[in-house]
Specification:
Blueprint: H1 2-20, E1 22-24, E2 26-31, E3 50-56, E4 59-70, E5 75-83, E6 90-98, E7 107-117, E8 123-128, E9 131-136, E10 143-146, E11 149-154, E12 157-162, E13 167-170, E14 177-180, E15 184-187, E16 190-197, E17 208-213, E18 219-220, E19 241-244, E20 251-254, E21 257-260, E22 265-268, E23 277-279, E24 286-287, E25 300-302, E26 309-310, E27 323-325, E28 332-333, E29 355-356, E30 369-371, E31 378-379, E32 392-394, E33 401-402, E34 415-417, E35 424-425, E36 438-441, E37 447-448, E38 460-463, E39 485-488, H2 493-497, E40 504-506, E41 514-517, E42 542-546, E43 549-553
Parallel strand pairs: 6-8, 13-16, 14-17, 16-18, 17-19, 22-24, 23-25, 24-26, 25-27, 28-29, 29-31, 30-32, 32-34, 33-35, 35-37, 36-38, 38-39, 39-40, 41-43
Antiparallel strand pairs: 1-5, 2-7, 3-4, 3-10, 4-7, 5-6, 8-9, 11-12, 12-13, 15-16, 20-21, 21-22, 42-43
Length: about 550
């Protein structure tokens, strides 16, 4: 499927090129069908992608061996165009798999052959499938272009060589101290330009203190263009500075921090940089994944409203981070952005954020309260997991689900109001929230997952809606004990009595009678009105509920 998507993108690019050049006719398109040995489930060594070119006069025969495509592919559409220019011009070949709309999620290798007519020059730039570069053809002699890789160690540094392009990629090394990556290396009489670093080349290297990139480094994993989509220095806890040689076309460094050339994307902030505060420069609109991860010195970080994207785990493990000023133009807070930020005390989620990713605040043990803006409509798992100081959370009134383990191990949580928009409460949501005394599920709630109250010491649990019987089992109350009084609709009492060993009452019952309570009330937040809403201010005269009993305020 991925190959098909890439080819579709390539097709759009090539259409622009074709409009500028002469379209060449293509004939005799044949394919082998799915090569059987490629349909292997599990890990296997993929056959080498290869292009074979053979020219006679103005006719070019092309073979594509081990062309990876969707298993549902039954044919290929081929178009070719030629543009006049330097080095004899440029030949562009676009190969599009034909699937007939089949949705198949596996990949397979094919051999595809075809003939291009009307090609005059023998020296030209070729753009076809995986290959882009200069080729020199001799009539009657096949030119074989194989995407062959070789792993080597040169001058004590490990590389992968991509022989068809004479490119080298820096791979994992046991670096210590300062490292300056060369711009080119030589092997067996051939020169290779160092264009890439493997995305895991530096990860978790705790001895690396400084890295200097040459002007030739442009991407990760032999990618095209500015391929730094996450921090390649994740876990480099001794790294103090990143430098980039002048003239690099896609990267630059400012005060030891890695950016793209235009300074619109922040790629990596060194984990050992010792500043306690950092202001992200204006103009930066994208912060990549893991950018600030594991920095123990940062206390405050501020970003301008230019920032529209904040990558996953951006502040992961910043153990002294206390405050972050977020852009008001963020729409998504991705997974684990603040995971294990142990000293994060406060956070303001901007109005406009619509999604909160999994483990967003997991392990933020100093966080005491969070308010979700109304713009939030969806969340993921374990957002507040292990937030042991969290006392209160205001949920968005527009979310329809409370995901798995959202408040797992939030042992200080005392206050939570579930919005009437919520239909599903999934598994282990309030597990080990031992400070909670009352939980009130509105009529909108139709499903409550198992073990949602395990480890809780609730006095009262209100379930006002009709929960699907499939979810009302002994697993629902697993680990809760029997001290909790459960209040449900009168028609539901028998259903809950079958699975819960504690006391179950109808919501219309007198709830053990009425007890007088003399005003003023010391703690009005412990009171609920008869519809079950928690009081936010001093009560007026009337009947209220406290710990499952009715009280009269006189």
């Amino acid at each position: 499927m991925l190959q098909c998507v890439l080819l579709m993108i390539l097709a759009m690019v090539m259409n622009v090129i074709e409009a500028e050049g002469q379209e060449l006719s293509v004939s005799d398109i044949q394919n082998s069908g799915c090569i059987s040995h490629a349909r292997v489930y599990g890990v296997y060594e993929r056959p080498t992608p290869t292009i074979i070119l053979e020219k006679e006069g103005d006719i070019l025969s092309v073979q594509l061996l081990n062309y990876e495509s969707n298993c549902g592919t039954y044919d290929f559409d081929v178009k070719s165009s030629f543009s006049e220019g330097s080095e004899g011009g440029s030949l562009h070949v676009k190969v599009t798999p034909v699937t007939g709309g089949m949705d198949v999620d596996c990949l397979c290798d094919f051999n595809v052959s075809f003939t291009v007519h009307g090609l005059e020059p023998n020296t030209l730039c070729l753009s076809c499938w995986w290959y882009e570069g200069l080729v020199e053809l001799t009539d009657g002699e096949p030119l074989v272009l194989a995407d062959v890789y070789e792993n080597v160690t040169l001058d004590g540094m490990n590389y992968t060589l991509r022989k068809a392009f004479h490119h080298a990629m820096v791979t994992r090394n046991n670096w210590a101290g300062e490292v300056c990556i060369p711009s080119e290396v030589s092997h067996e009489g051939q020169t290779y330009t160092v264009t890439s670093i493997d995305r895991n080349a530096f990860r978790n290297n705790t001895s690396l203190t400084k890295v200097t990139f040459p002007r030739t480094i442009t991407s990760l994993d032999f990618g095209a263009g500015n391929g730094f989509d996450s921090n390649p220095f994740f876990g480099c806890t001794a790294l103090k500075s990143i430098e980039v040689e002048e003239g690099n076309p896609v990267l630059c460094a400012v005060d030891g921090v890695l950016f793209n050339k235009e300074k619109t994307r922040l790629h990596a902030y060194p984990a050992a940089a010792d500043s306690t505060s950092y202001t992200i420069p204006e103009g930066v609109n994208w912060i990549e994944g893991l950018t600030f991860s594991y920095n123990p010195h940062l206390v405050t970080v501020s970003m301008s409203d230019d920032v529209t994207a904040l990558g996953y785990s951006a502040f992961y493990g910043c153990t002294n981070l206390e405050e972050v000023r977020l852009s008001s133009n963020l729409k998504i807070l991705a997974q684990s952005v603040f995971c294990n930020c142990e000293h994060l005390k406060t956070i303001t989620i901007p109005q406009g954020v619509t999604y909160l990713g999994s483990k967003l605040f997991s392990g933020c043990t100093s966080l005491t309260s969070v308010e979700m803006p109304e713009s939030v409509t969806s969340t993921d798992n374990a957002i507040f997991e292990n937030c042991t100081s969290l006392e209160s959370v205001t949920l968005s009134p527009n979310m329809d689900m409370i995901d798995n383990q959202m408040f797992l191990n939030c042992k200080s949580l005392t206050e939570i109001r579930i919005p009437e928009s919520v239909a599903w409460v999934l598994f282990d949501v309030f597990k080990n929230c031992s400070a909670l005394k009352t939980l009130d599920f509105p009529e909108s709630v139709q499903r409550i997952g198992s073990s949602s109250f395990s480890g809780c010491k609730l006095n009262s649990l209100f379930i006002r809606g009709i929960v699907d019987s499939h979810w009302v089992t002994e697993d629902l109350f697993a680990g809760m004990g029997t001290q909790t009084k459960v209040y449900v609709q009168a028609s539901e009492v028998e259903k809950y009595q079958k699975v819960y060993k504690g006391r179950v009452y109808a919501l219309t019952d007198e709830m053990n009678g009425i007890t007088d309570l003399i005003s003023p009330v010391n703690n009005p937040s412990e009171l609920y009105d008869l519809p079950g809403r928690k009081l936010r201010s001093e009560p007026v005269k009337g009947v209220y509920i406290k710990d499952g009993k009715k009280y009269v305020v006189k």
